[in-house]
Amino acid sequence: MGFTGGRTANPSYEDVCSGATGHAEAVQVIYDPLQVSYEELARLFFETHDFTQVNRQGPDVGTQYRSEIFYADENQRQAAEKLKSLLEAKGFKVATAVTKAGPFWKADDYHQNYYQKNGRQPYCHVYRKIF
């Protein structure tokens, strides 16, 4: 877990929560395209969070909780936009932004593997088949 999409170098969790940095809470996914495609990962992203919410996910509210895909190259951008279009064609109002990736700043250790460390179940991420 970490932060991206903002204006401040190496922000703290508190900085990001203030709303002043412009960052989103994010994960950086490193994957093997021989094992899974970018589009499959992007589909999973859409199917495990509420892409219709603006600046929130469940009870977590703030610009840092916005729905956003940060892409690394043109192929990733096109795949994300294609999925958004498919969802919109199904009648969904998609709030997810698709943005060129910038620096990714790793969050402090406390926020890594948060659910495992705190003995909780995810409370705003539930898988649902959409595609």
By CATH, the architecture is named: 2-Layer Sandwich
Uncertain stretches: none
Number of spatially distinct domains: 1
- Looking at the structure, the CATH topology is Peptide Methionine Sulfoxide Reductase, Chain A
Outline the structure in words.
This protein has 131 residues and is an alpha+beta fold. The chain has one domain: Peptide Methionine Sulfoxide Reductase, Chain A (2-Layer Sandwich), CATH 3.30.1060. It is 27% helix and 15% strand. The chain is built from four helices and seven strands, in the order βαβαβββαββα. It has helices spanning 13-17, 38-47, 74-89, 114-118, and strands spanning 2-4, 24-26, 56-57, 60-61, 68-71, 97-100, 105-106. The strands form three sheets. Strands 2-1-7 form a three-stranded antiparallel beta sheet, with no helix packed on it. The longest helix has 16 residues, at 74-89. The two termini are 26 Å apart.
Helix and strand layout, with pairings?
Elements lengths: L1 E3 L8 H5 L6 E3 L11 H10 L8 E2 L2 E2 L6 E4 L2 H16 L7 E4 L4 E2 L7 H5 L13
Parallel strand pairs: 5-6
Antiparallel strand pairs: 1-2, 1-7, 3-4
Helix pairs in contact: 2-3
